[in-house]
User: Fold this.
Amino acid sequence: MMLHSTYKGILDMKRNCYLGGVIFAAMFMMCIPQTDANVDVFVYTETVQWISQAAAQTEANILMDNIRGKSGIGRVVNDPADKIADWTKQHTEQNGHHIIVLFGDLPPEIYPEGNTQPDGSIAEEFLDDGNTISNSADWMFWGLGNRNAEAGLRNMMDVPGIVQWDDNTPMMVTPEGKDLTPSLEDFMTDRPFHINDLAATDWEIEIAFATNTGNKDGASLCDPCIVRNKETNARLIQVHQTNQGDDPKGEVIAEIILNYYLEAIKAEPQAVEPINKLPILWGNLKK
Assistant:
């Protein structure tokens, strides 16, 4: 009996040590960054503003050629407006980090024109689940023919009073921009993000590739840059919001995605599978 009790005690000790190791490993894994982004991208060029459709398609083709097949990139599509609503709904998943790329127009298929659905639109739900929208050429979410005007951005961000004036604003490439977006040069933007408008909101400038000072610190305006919602992980990427500007939009968007965005979303802690498997492991140990 003494031998049996001792042997049983050793087995119990082994089980407890093994279980403790499993729990520790699972907790450790929770702190490891996500490794497989699998970001799908919808590039929309059917309606545009402040850029010809031909020019937008050229930039879109450059973007798609540069990101297709790259690690972390899933399916890249360039479909018309009648496809965007279904795609957006299908990709509205928590921290999916999928991207819609626009060239000056937010199609009414995902944000009803005239701001008739200021809250809960398909586009806003997509953002609020931790996904991303990129825009070039004109004020973000302004809409073709002033369909949404200032209220488009304000509703999508839930930031009353935010603006994106002014014309011919000098942008100087930041150190981060020089490192991550080699195609980007100093230029004149017409619709920069106003950094001060984000004060006391859930949004922050995550990274600025060019600003009015050439640095993120002390700057009041930026373009290109990424703004991120600290609560939802929604991101807005703006790149060359210029009026008929001959800017390397496609190259810069691709560089932002490949050189920064994919790494940034990997750094976000993710819940992992080992925790869910603990009951199964413990059940196996008891056998």
